[in-house]
Inverse folding.
């Protein structure tokens, strides 16, 4: 089994699709400098070239395209709510802006896949929706409540519905399932192929990408890097889970760890046991969340939190995963399908950006020329596309559907100083693990008090 080396997705992407791009070679001046060559930075640069075709745009990246969460995620192009509805509705657009964000997320599926098709990039896309399964009475009760909450926000039976145990089993055979939430609004895809294809599309539009060029300091009009200083009228930060590594940004965004394993391809007999022919993305309603997909080459890729956070907002080294978390994720696989003999092929981890209020922001200051976008809390494949369009339109001075989305101009409070961040993160996931054990043993419909306490500590609900 391979451990780390960024991710299976990046290793599986053809070498021709991920060329080595030279670093910056001395000082330079451009119209726009984007910091970060993940989804957000690349979509921002791509859409800026559409809006401002004469602008010179440079993307500087500390490592290589797709090094961060864009090359390591679960591959869900999802229509789920981005951020917490109550926070996103606090802006001037109110409830209507939140509903528009939901509609824009679903519309993004065809837009993203259309751009990839225009550039002859196959991202292994299957529009199969997503399932969230419940295997205890409390999990099933939470799924009922989730469907009711979606109805309150205007979602219909066509958007989300509850499946019975039998209806769930028709789609996928999982040990002990009582029911599931189903939504058609999800596309399963290959994250590595998407981020490398997006980089190629941005370059074809005239964007320059400088890899192995870490930003050391960002200020109005200037980005100081390890290989020279970039002078630019507009400087846009798209650093997501790596934001805390920048000077003065340690408490802006918490780099929450997310871990994944992927199996070797399963046999035809194993797939007859499992089912899962519809390409749905899969997750669980337990508090120690998991997410999964069936890949185009018949593997199962499954992720979860593992060790949630590193003291001082440190991040991983090239995605290497600890042995305990690998064992935990392997245990989730065995618990879902106890009769299937899994062999793990690759394990890795990465950091996603979590704001203190669990809700994203897109900000651009006309006076300073500084802007940033991020804080998607696990919904970044879709959110980064919309945020990139928002940031590009703000810089271009346009009033569009995207600039009116509820994240425009909003800010989040800062995280607490250490050791409170570390203590809070581990307390939260410790309580969630105890809650899952409690709910599994008592079989009550009521959510465990341990989980309710964790939600209160973190402000998630």
């Amino acid at each position: 089994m391979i451990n780390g080396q960024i991710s299976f997705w990046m290793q599986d992407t053809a070498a021709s699709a991920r060329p080595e791009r030279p670093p910056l070679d001395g000082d330079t001046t451009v119209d726009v400098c984007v910091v970060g060559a993940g989804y957000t930075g690349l979509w921002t640069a791509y859409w800026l070239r559409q809006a401002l075709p004469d602008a010179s745009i440079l993307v500087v990246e500390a490592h290589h395209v797709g090094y961060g969460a864009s090359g390591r995620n679960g591959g869900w192009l999802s229509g789920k709510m981005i951020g917490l509805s109550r926070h996103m509705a606090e802006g001037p657009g109110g409830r209507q802006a939140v509903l528009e964000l939901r509609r824009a997320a679903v519309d993004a599926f065809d837009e993203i896949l259309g751009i990839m098709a225009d550039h002859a990039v196959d991202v292994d896309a299957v529009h199969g929706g997503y399932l969230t399964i419940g295997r205890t009475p409390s999990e099933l009760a939470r799924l009922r409540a989730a469907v009711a909450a979606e109805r309150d926000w205007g979602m219909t039976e066509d958007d989300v519905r509850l499946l019975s145990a039998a209806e769930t089993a028709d789609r996928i055979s999982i040990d002990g399932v009582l029911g599931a939430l189903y939504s058609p609004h999800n596309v399963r895809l290959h994250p590595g192929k998407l981020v490398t294809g997006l980089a190629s599309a941005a370059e074809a539009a005239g964007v320059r990408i400088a890899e192995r060029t870490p930003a050391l300091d960002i200020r109005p009009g200037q980005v100081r890097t390890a290989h020279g200083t970039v002078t630019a009228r507009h400087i846009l930060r798209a650093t997501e889970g790596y934001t805390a590594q920048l000077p003065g940004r340690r408490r802006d965004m918490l780099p929450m760890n997310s871990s994944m394993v992927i199996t070797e391809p399963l046999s035809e007999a194993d797939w007859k046991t499992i089912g899962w022919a519809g390409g749905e993305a899969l997750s669980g309603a337990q508090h120690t969340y998991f997410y999964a997909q069936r890949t185009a080459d018949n593997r199962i890729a499954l992720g979860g939190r593992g060790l949630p956070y590193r003291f001082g907002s440190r991040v991983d080294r090239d995605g290497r995963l600890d042995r305990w978390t690998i064992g935990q994720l392997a245990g989730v696989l065995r618990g879902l399908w106890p009769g299937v003999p899994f062999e793990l092929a690759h394990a890795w981890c990465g950091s996603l950006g979590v704001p203190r209020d669990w809700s994203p922001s897109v900000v651009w200051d006309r006076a300073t020329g500084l802007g940033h976008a991020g804080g998607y809390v696990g919904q970044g494949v879709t959110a980064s596309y919309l945020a990139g369009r928002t940031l590009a339109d703000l810089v271009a001075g346009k009033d569009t559907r995207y600039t009116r989305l509820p994240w425009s101009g909003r800010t989040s409070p800062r995280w607490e100083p250490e050791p409170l961040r570390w203590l809070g993160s581990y307390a939260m996931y410790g309580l969630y693990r105890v809650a899952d054990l409690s709910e599994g043993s008592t079989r009550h419909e009521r959510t465990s008090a341990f989980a309710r306490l964790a939600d209160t500590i973190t402000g998630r609900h």
In short: The chain has a mean pLDDT of 96. The CA atoms of residues 20 and 429 lie 39 Å apart. The radius of gyration is 21 Å.
